[in-house]
C-alpha cells in the first residue's frame, strides 16, 4: 500500500497532502522570507552605517523597517515553526499524517499569495506600508498610503493560513496520538505546539478584527479609531496588543519546545522537570492574555493600570525562570557533547535569558517611559526573537535534517556558522542597548552624531550575521545534495522519541500502523 | 466514530471559536473599551447633556477652569475660547463661548471632541449645553460663537483645584454631506 510521492514535480508540490512535503514547503518558504526580511534589514543597517542620509530616502526607510518586521514575524518565524510542526508532530506522536491533509495544503499555498500581495506594494505608487509593523492608527488609517488595503488583505490571508494550520495541529495532537501516548507522555515540542495552536486560534481572529476595523475606517466611513467620529486611536493599541502579546509567545513557545528536545539529547539525560515544563508553558500562555498594556505604558494609563500591568508582566518571569532552570539542570552532570544543534540551543538559553532580563527592565512602568520606542526595545526583542526563535529554528534544522534526508551535514561548517552567528549577533544587538539607553529612538533613518560609533559597530555585526545565513543555506543545500549518507535510525546517540525509531531517511509514509507506547 | 468525523467535529468547534474571537474583537472590545473609560473616567471623556438639578453652590471652594481649543490635523478654521480661564464655585452654572470661523471658500462641517484633565475630574464636569453635542456646519466665510454651559459637581475631589477642558476640532465635511446642503 505504501506508495511514494508523485513523480511529476508540479503535482507533487502543488497538490501535496503529505505532511512531510508540506513541512518541506513551509520550511523553504520561510527561509526565502527570512532572506527577504534579512535583505530589508541589510538596507536598514546600511543606511544607519553612518549619520546623515546616504542610500535611501526617509520615506523608503520607514517602509523597510515596517516590511522587515512584518516579513520576519509572519513570513519567516511563524511558517518555519509550522513547517517543523508538520514534519515532526506526526512522527513524534506516532500518527500517519496530519489530521486534515487537504486543509494543510490550502493553509500553505495561500501564504505565498499573501506575501506576494504585501511585497508588491513596494513597487506601487505611494509605496509599501510605512507605519511600523505594529501599524498604529491613525498612522495606518488616516495617514496611510493607499496601498494599505493590500496590506490589510495580506494580513487577512496570513491570519486564515495560521488559523487553519493551528486547527490542523490541534486536531492531529488531540485525535491521532498512538495508543498509549497520553498527554503527559507527549514530547515537549508537541506540547508547546499544542498550546501555541490554541493561542493562535484565540488571537489571530483578533488581529483580523483589528485590520477589518481599519479597513472600515478607511473605506466605509466608520470611526473605530477616529476621534472625529467618537472613536479612539488608543483602542487600536489595546486591540492590537491583545493580539500582539500572545503573538510573541506564539513565536517563542515552539522554540522552547525545540530546545527541550535538543538539550536532553546532547546531555544524554531525560529532560529535567518534564511536568513542570508543561505547566510552565501553560502558565505563560495564560499570562500572555492579561499583560498586553505593558506595551502602552506611555499612552496615559491611570497609575492603577500601570501597576497592574507591571506586576502581571513581572509574574511571567516565574514560569519562564522554571523553564530556564530546567534546561540548565538537564545539562547539569550530563555527558555533554557540543554538536551544532546543541551549540545553538545553549546559545538560545543564554541569549534568551538575557533578552528576558531586558524585558524585566522594560516591564518597570516608571523606567519604561525612558526606554519606550528606543533602540533598547529593539535590542530587547531581537534578543528574544533572533537569539530565541531564529537560533532555535536553526538548531532544529541541524538536529532533524539528517533524519529528513538521510544525509549528514558538515559539522565543521555548522560550527563555523554558529560561531559567526553568535558573535555577529552580539556585535549587532548588544550596542543597540547602549544606543537606546542613550536615547536613540527607533524607526528613524538618521540620528545624532553621538550615536555614530555604536551604529557603525551594529551595522558591521549585521552584515556579518547576514553572511552567516548564506553559509547556513549553503550547508543545507550541500547536505541534501552531497551530504554523507547515513542509515542509523538513531542519528544522535542520546536521542529519545518515536521519530528516532523510524528508518533514516524518514520514508514518505510513516506509522501507517500506529506504534504502541508502553 | 470514524477518524474523519472526529476531526470534523473538532474542526467545526475550533472554527466557531475563531469566528467568536473575531466577533469579540469587532463587536465587544470597542464598546467594552468605551464602557471601561466611562466607568473609570479615564480617557477624559465627558458625559452627554446633563439635566440641571437643584444643587447647592459650595462657596467655600473656588476652582480654576481653563479652556483649550485645538484644530486637528489640517482643519483650517479659526477656533479659540473667548475666555481662557474662569474661576467657579462647585455647583455654580457658568456659560462660556468659543469663537469659530470657517475662513475657507467652501462650506464645511466640524465636530468638536471634548476632553477633561485631570482624569479624576471628568466625572464631575457636567455640561448642560454644549456645541459639542452636535456637529457644527458653517458656510464659507461664516463665523459663530459656540456656547458651553457647565457646572462642576460639588463632589469634585478636593485635590482638584484646576480643571482643563479641551476641545479638538475635526473636519467631518466628507462624512456628513447632508448638513452642508442644509445650511445653504
Tell me briefly what this model is.
The complex is a heterodimer of chains A (518) and B (184). Chain A is an all-alpha fold.
Task: Give an overview of the whole structure.
- The complex is a heterodimer of chains A (about 525) and B (about 180).
- Chain A is mainly alpha-helical and about 525 residues long.
- Chain A has 16 helices and two strands.
- In chain A, strands 1-2 form a two-stranded antiparallel ribbon.
- In chain A, helix 3 runs parallel beside helix 14 (about 375-405).
- The mean pLDDT of chain A is about 95.
- Chain B has two domains: about 1-40; about 65-185, Ctag/Cox11 (Pfam 04442) (Sandwich).
- Helices cover about 25% and strands about 35% of the residues of chain B.
- Chain B contains two helices and nine strands.
- Chain B has helices at about 5-40, 175-184; strands at about 65-70, 80, 85-90, 95-100, 110-115, 125-130, 135-140, 145-150, 160-170.
- Chain B has a five-stranded mixed β-sheet with strand order 3-1-9-5-7. A four-stranded antiparallel β-sheet of chain B has the order 2-4-8-6, with no helix packed on it.
- The model of chain B has no long low-confidence stretch (mean pLDDT about 80).
- The chains are: A mainly alpha (about 525), B alpha+beta (about 180).
- At the A-B interface, helix 6, helix 7 and helix 8 of A face helix 1 and strand 9 of B.
Going by CATH, the homologous superfamily of the largest domain in chain B would be Ctag/Cox11
H-E string of chain A = HHHHHHHHHHHHHHEHHE
CATH architecture of chain A: Up-down Bundle
Oligomer state equals heterodimer
Please tell me the overall pLDDT of chain A. Answer: 94
Q: Give the tally of β-strands of chain A.
A: 2
With helices defined by DSSP (H or I, 4 residues minimum), what is the helix count of chain B? 2
Task: Quote the average pLDDT of chain B.
Answer: 82
- Beginning-to-end CA distance, first to last residue of chain A: 27 Å
How many helices of chain A? The count is 16
Question: Quick one: CATH class of chain A?
Answer: Mainly Alpha
Which class do the helix and strand fractions of chain B yield? alpha+beta
Strand order of the largest sheet of chain B: 3-1-9-5-7
Broad structural category of chain A: mainly alpha
H/E series of chain B? HEEEEEEEEEH
Percent range for β-strand residues of chain B: 35-45%
- Our count of domains of chain B comes out at 2
- Unreliable segments of 5+ consecutive residues of chain B: none
* β-strand amount of chain A: under 5%
Helix coverage percent of chain B: 10-25%
